[in-house]
Amino acid sequence: MDEQRDYLERLLKTFRVAALITVSADGAPSARPMLTLGDVSTREIWFMTRLDTEKGRNIQSNPNVGIYFATDGDQRYVSLRGRAEIIRDRELIRTRWTEQLQRWFRQGPDTPNLALVKVVPHEAEYWDERTNREERVTLAS
Questions:
Q1: Which end of the chain is less crowded, N or C, counting CB atoms within 10 A of the terminal residue's CB?
Q2: pLDDT digit string (tens) for 46-56?
Q3: If we measure between CA atoms, which residue out of 90, 100, 81 comes closest to residue 35?
């Protein structure tokens, strides 16, 4: 199990963009591309969003989310399931802020309704065509 988790950790570090999948109040899934903030790991994955968006509302009503990473060229894929937490701490938002976010949040870290989304994954599946590996890994209970 440690070898699987270590391999997953190395694989996750190669991704910067993920599809964050939330579930609406009527049970419909919705996915959108999101820039990850900082290092991606099996312990936590960070995003930034506005709370007055569909994904913000979805997370507030149902914190169970999916995250999907993919590369086309070398055919590596990771699917995570976990629980999202909304964090409104302005100082932490400023700490996690990167200039890449400016295109979506024009007022910078002072954008109204801006919040961090911290996802703690509890289960992962990965596929790596280069090494012919396919595994399911339980990360937390």
A1: C
A2: 999 999 999 99
A3: 100
Q: Any idea what DSSP says for residue 135?
A: E
Measured distance CA(11)–CA(69) in Å, rounded: 10
pLDDT at position 72 over 80? no
Residue entry with tokens 């396919």: 134
Q: Is 108 left (phi over 0), alpha (psi -120 to 50) or beta?
A: left
Threshold 0.85, pTM exceeds:
yes
Q: In a 10 Å sphere around its CB, with 0-12 CB exposed, 13-18 middle and 19+ buried, how is residue 19 labelled?
A: middle
**Alpha-carbon gap, residue 115 to 86, rounded angstroms:** 6
**DSSP states of 32-90:** EEEE-BS---SS-EEEEEETTSHHHHHHHH--EEEEEEEETTTTEEEEEEEEEEEE--H
Q: Cα dihedral sign for 38, 31, 4, 15?
A: negative
Residue 5's H or E segment, with its range, is helix 2-12
